[in-house]
Design goal:
single chain, 141 residues, mainly beta, Metal Binding Protein, Guanine Nucleotide Exchange Factor, Chain A, six-stranded antiparallel beta sheet, three-stranded antiparallel beta sheet, 2 helices, disordered N terminus
Length: 141
């Protein structure tokens, strides 16, 4: 693991290092920009209070207080846990124009953000459950 001097705390690993340390489904989705089929991944129907962390590096990404049932089959949130927790970039794959959401610490692919979410933000962070790891409220890392 090395830190990028331009972004303190940035985690950089080779593809081989990620593949050796992550479960296959997490690797496929988070490192290879995969998507789990709707209603099949963990957390789409999860109601436990807690913090959703990056499945690759453990960074806090979303709080269950901002989670809502979007009806899409993926865990959805109306805001990240903090400014700078996630990064967004244009995604033109599959003939669509979307905004990809990445972990700001390790660049894991998390999902996409759309402008059809609830108040107060109007955002729907539609995440892959396999890219997240729930830390239930009151538990330690």
């Amino acid at each position: 693991m090395t830190n990028d001097d331009t972004k303190p705390g940035k985690i950089l690993k080779t593809d081989a290092e990620w593949k050796a340390t992550l479960p296959p489904e997490v690797y496929r989705i988070a490192r290879k920009q995969g998507t789990e089929p709707a209603f099949t991944g963990p957390y789409h129907a999860e109601k436990k209070p807690g913090v959703y962390r990056c499945a690759c590096c453990g960074q806090e990404l979303f709080d269950s207080k901002t989670k809502f049932d979007s009806g899409t089959g993926w865990p959805s949130f109306w805001a990240p846990v903090a400014e700078g927790a996630v990064e967004a970039k244009p995604d033109y794959a599959h003939g669509m124009m979307r905004t990809e959401v990445l972990c700001s610490r390790c660049d894991a692919h998390l999902g996409h953000v759309f402008d059809d979410g609830p108040r107060p933000t109007g955002q729907r962070y539609c995440m892959n459950g396999w890219a997240l790891k729930l830390e239930p409220r009151g538990d330690k890392k």
